[in-house]
Write a structure and sequence with these properties.
The protein is an all-alpha fold and about 190 residues long. It has helices spanning about 15-35, 45-55, 60-85, 95-120, 125-140, 165-190, 190-194. The chain is built from seven helices and no strands. The protein is globular.
Length: about 190
């Protein structure tokens, strides 16, 4: 709704940059909520024992959950793009690609961080706290601490950081590393959960 009506939140312009600005602030939070809650039921007290007793591999379970979370994130992105288009922002496929390249690296990084911390902490609140905490620190420090992996490099460029493309690649690589760690933890560390 805010993307369709940016004046509601005090933004006067309705263009591609406003759409990117709003989505870059909101989509990582959506990713945090989606990924941190992906194993909420499995981390309950007795359920991991039952889950690990099944004959299928835990690798399939976590890959399925990550895939489902990615689909939900893509649906959220699509709804936001449609909201911007219906709100009067003319969008081409190149514009959608422009927005996606700026939104998904930060969202996937924070989603992977939330997933890994929720598995390590064996509680979805741990993942929510880690993801929202990181997002809040990035908002307040504006990349002074993180530099090359600043989440909002496209909104508030940090002079000491790398280019925007390199920033996106760093975020994607770190997100992939965190996803790999979460997969390894869930698949191999049975004693941690049972």
């Amino acid at each position: 709704m805010c993307i369709s009506h940016p004046k509601w939140i005090g933004l006067e312009q309705r263009d591609l940059h406003t759409l990117t600005f709003l989505m870059l602030l909101v989509m990582p939070v959506i990713a945090i909520v989606i990924f941190a809650n992906s194993f909420a039921e499995e981390l309950e007290e007795r359920l991991p024992r039952l889950l690990y007793a099944y004959p299928f591999k835990m690798l399939y379970v976590i890959l399925e959950r990550i895939g489902l979370c990615l689909i939900l994130l893509l649906i959220s992105f699509t709804i936001s793009i449609i909201g911007g288009y219906l709100g009067g922002i003319p969008l081409s496929w190149q514009d959608v690609n422009y927005v996606a390249w700026r939104i998904f690296p930060a969202s996937l990084f924070l989603g992977a961080l939330s997933l890994l911390v929720s598995l390590l902490g064996r509680n979805m609140l741990a993942g929510l706290g880690a993801g929202i905490g990181y997002w809040f620190i990035e908002m307040t420090t504006q990349g002074q601490w993180t530099g090359k992996i600043f989440l909002f490099q496209f909104i508030w460029p940090v002079a000491a950081a790398t280019s925007q493309i390199e920033n996106s690649l760093y975020l994607l690589l770190l997100g992939l590393a965190l996803f790999t760690a979460a997969i390894f933890l869930f698949h191999k560390a049975r004693a941690w959960f049972v």
